[in-house]
C-alpha cells in the first residue's frame, strides 16, 4: 500500500519563530490576524490562558519584548526624563545588552484528521542568555524559516533550514580557552498547534515541565540529580526488604 506524506505546514515554524524571536520586526498583531482563527482561538501555558485573538497578540508582543532587553545609556535616560528626547525617536546604541532569548527547534511531528483539521507538535528549547556581550561565540540567531516553496506530498520528505547560534561560552583571560557559560539557561518546551480546515490556528498550547523550570535556578540541577537517585536507591532497598 502507498503511504501518504503530509506536507509540512509552514505556519508551524513561523509561529515559533515570531513568538520567540529577538530580531526587529513589525507588531505581532498583523501576523496574529493571519495565523489565528478570529472565532475560536485559544492560547494557554501552565500559567495563563487567553481566549481572544487580541489578548493572544498582546501576550506574544510582550514575549517578543522580553526576548531582547537592552540597558540604555544614562545620558539617553536623562534626556527622556527631561523630555529632551522626541517621543518615538531611536535611542541609538544601548549601554549594554542585558538579555537575549531565542528558541531552537528540535523536532516537529504533524497529523491530519478526516475533516481537514491538522495538528502540529513542536519540540523546541528556549535559550535564555544573560549579558550576551560577555560571550565570545554568541551571535543573535535569525528566525527559523522553511525553505520556500514547501515540499509537495510527492517529494520524499519535507526539509527545512535552521539558522542557529553557536553555543555561548565565556573566555578565560590569558589563555585561548572558552568555558560553557553559567549565564546560559535552557528550557525544553512542547508546543501544540491545532489548525482548522482554512489553515488557521484554533489552539496554541505551550507545555513545560516544572522540574525543567526549577533547573533554571543555580544549584537545583545538582540537588535534583542527588534526590532523584537517592529516591531510586531507597525504593529499591524497601522493595528488597519487603
How would you describe this structure in keywords?
flat, 6 helices, 28% helix, disordered N terminus, 242 residues, alpha+beta
Structure write-up:
It is built from six helices and eleven strands. The chain is an alpha+beta fold and 242 residues long. A hairpin with a 5-residue loop joins strand 4 (96-112) and strand 5 (118-130). Helix 2 packs across helix 3 (53-66). The longest helix has 22 residues, at 220-241. 19% of the residues are buried.
The termini sit apart by 53 Å
> Radius of gyration in whole Å, from Cα?
22 Å
Number of strands: 11
Shape: flat
Topology order in helix (H) and strand (E) letters: HHEEHEHEEEEEEEEHH
Strand content: 25-35%
Summarize the model shown.
The protein is α+β, with helices and mostly antiparallel strands. It contains six helices and eleven strands. The longest helix has 22 residues, at 220-241.
Topology of helices and strands:
Elements lengths: L9 H10 L8 H8 L7 E2 L4 E2 L2 H14 L1 E4 L2 H8 L14 E17 L5 E13 L14 E2 L13 E2 L7 E3 L6 E3 L3 E12 L5 E7 L2 H5 L5 H22 L1
Parallel strand pairs: 1-11
Antiparallel strand pairs: 1-2, 3-4, 4-5, 5-10, 6-7, 8-9, 10-11
Amino acid at each position: 500500500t502507498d503511504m501518504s506524506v503530509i506536507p509540512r505546514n509552514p505556519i508551524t515554524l513561523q509561529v515559533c519563530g515570531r513568538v520567540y524571536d529577538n530580531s526587529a520586526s513589525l507588531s505581532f498583531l498583523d501576523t496574529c490576524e493571519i495565523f489565528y482563527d478570529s472565532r475560536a482561538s485559544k492560547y494557554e501555558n501552565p500559567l495563563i490562558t487567553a481566549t481572544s485573538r487580541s489578548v493572544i497578540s498582546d501576550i506574544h508582543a510582550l514575549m517578543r519584548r522580553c526576548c531582547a532587553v537592552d540597558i540604555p545609556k544614562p545620558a539617553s535616560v536623562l534626556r527622556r526624563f527631561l523630555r529632551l528626547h522626541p517621543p518615538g525617536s531611536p535611542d541609538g546604541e544601548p549601554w549594554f545588552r542585558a538579555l537575549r532569548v531565542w528558541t531552537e527547534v528540535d523536532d516537529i511531528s504533524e497529523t491530519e484528521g478526516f475533516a481537514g483539521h491538522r495538528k502540529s507538535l513542536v519540540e523546541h528549547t528556549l535559550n535564555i542568555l544573560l549579558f550576551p556581550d560577555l560571550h565570545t561565540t554568541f551571535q543573535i540567531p535569525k528566525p527559523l524559516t522553511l525553505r520556500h516553496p514547501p515540499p509537495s506530498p510527492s517529494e520524499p520528505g519535507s526539509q527545512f533550514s535552521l539558522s542557529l547560534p553557536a553555543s555561548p561560552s565565556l573566555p578565560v583571560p590569558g589563555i585561548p580557552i572558552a568555558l560553557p557559560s553559567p549565564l546560559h539557561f535552557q528550557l525544553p518546551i512542547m508546543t501544540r498547534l491545532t489548525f482548522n480546515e482554512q489553515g488557521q490556528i484554533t489552539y496554541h498550547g505551550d507545555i513545560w515541565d516544572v522540574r525543567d523550570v526549577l533547573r533554571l535556578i543555580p544549584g537545583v540541577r545538582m540537588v535534583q540529580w542527588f534526590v532523584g537517585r537517592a529516591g531510586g536507591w531507597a525504593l529499591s532497598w524497601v522493595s528488597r526488604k519487603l
